[in-house]
Amino acid sequence: MKSRMMKLAGVLAVAMLASVATGGIASAQQIKAKLGHAMPQEHPQAVALTRFAELANTYTEGRVKMNVYHGGMLGGDDKMLQSTQSGTQEMFYGSLAPIAGKIKEVQVFDFPFLFNNMKEVDAVFLGPIGTTLMQKLEPHNLHGVAWGETGFRQLSNNKHEVKTADDIKGLKVRVMQNQVALDSWKAIGANALPMSYAEVFTALETGALDGQENPYIHMYANKIYEVQKYGTTTNHVYTPCILVTSKKFWEALTPADQDAIVKAGKESMVYLRQLMDEGNAKVVAELEEQGMTVTTLPDAELAKLRTATLPVIEKYKPVVGAQLVDDIMGTIQKVRDQK
């Protein structure tokens, strides 16, 4: 009897080892995660996040299975960010604008005309300032993985071609859901309306909005040309995006898998930059092929917008932290001085 029991135990042990070898037990322990973002599958952002999911699976050796939900399938940025904070959604990629009221420091990236080019952007986000800002997320049940990009924002509208600063006045323009953006557009005379991006296309289609402001590559991917006639190159704001996890999900990972997620995140953001650079090089021509008229606002007119928005910067500098603003300006100036 004892011999038969020992044989049975041996058979069970072999079966268990076979199960591990074939992934039976491993799959039962696999962590499944939802990653949501707002852009459609055609957008470089979606392509890069799909790459992130693949890399995360590879680098964690299958222990983390990431499912990417494109096109706002899990809701607008505000809803997805809240879900990530609560732990019902494991990861989010997008702007931090919906919680700028709670993390005052991130409002600095809504300051108009802060950056001139991507070298200045990288000096800020890939250095100590970017690390410090990520750490501000921790008390809000979020963990920063990697900075990404939305790019430089431009204006579009369905009323008339914008050739001067005065042409913006009176336009009903959707802006991001934060006070700095709202005040900036009011300062230049627009009728600024904060709204989740998921609602923008319908609002443009029905005439509830005249225009919106986003990078051209976003406009093309979201087929804004179907409801907008005019684009205006202003480069008025560079909007960063960020790949974040819920604190609950992050703390459930082993240190090795945390490192793997960060590695996958940083590599996928490098890939996103490559895709964005390629897309930006040709997207204006593609918008024009779809019927949009794209105009570059002259430097003299841009100077008028900068002057009009200076009081907004002065208003919010003490709000976001004067030292932070000075550190960012100093970092940017060092890049400019190298030319």
Explain this structure.
This protein is of the alpha/beta class. The chain has one domain: D-Maltodextrin-Binding Protein, domain 2, CATH 3.40.190. The chain has helices spanning 2-21, 24-29, 44-59, 77-86, 118-125, 128-135, 179-187, 200-206, 216-221, 247-252, 255-280, 283-289, 299-320, 322-337, and strands at residues 31-36, 64-69, 91-94, 142-152, 154-157, 172-175, 191-194, 211-214, 230-233, 238-246, 293-296. The strands form two sheets. The protein has a six-stranded mixed sheet, sandwiched between helices. A five-stranded mixed sheet has the order 2-1-3-10-4, with helices on both faces. Strand 6, helix 7 and strand 7 form a beta-alpha-beta unit. Helix 3 runs antiparallel to helix 11 and helix 7 (179-187) runs antiparallel to helix 13. Residues 8-28 have low confidence and may be disordered.
Instruction: Tell me the count of domains.
Output: 1
What is the name of the CATH class? Answer: Alpha Beta
Helix fraction, binned, reads 40-55%
Poorly predicted ranges:
8-28
The share of residues in extended strands comes to: 15-25%
Can you list the strand order of the major beta sheet? 7-6-8-5-9-11
- Given the structure, what is the number of helices? 14
* Major β-sheet profile: 6 strands, mixed
Radius of gyration: 23 Å
> Would you report the number of β strands?
11
N-to-C CA distance: 86 Å
Gross geometry: globular
CATH topology: D-Maltodextrin-Binding Protein, domain 2
CATH architectural group: 3-Layer(aba) Sandwich
- Give the topology string: H per helix, E per strand: HHEHEHEHHEEEHEHEHEEHHHEHH
Can you give the mean pLDDT?
A: 91
Task: Write the CATH homologous superfamily.
Answer: Bacterial extracellular solute-binding protein, family 7
